[in-house]
Amino acid sequence: CRVLLEKTNTNPEDIDAIICSTITPDYMCPTTSNLLCDALGAKNAFSYDLMAACSGFLYNLSTGTAFIESGRFKKVLLVGVDKMSCIVD
Question: Do residues 18 and 45 make contact, with C-beta atoms less than 8 angstroms apart?
Answer without folding.
Answer: yes
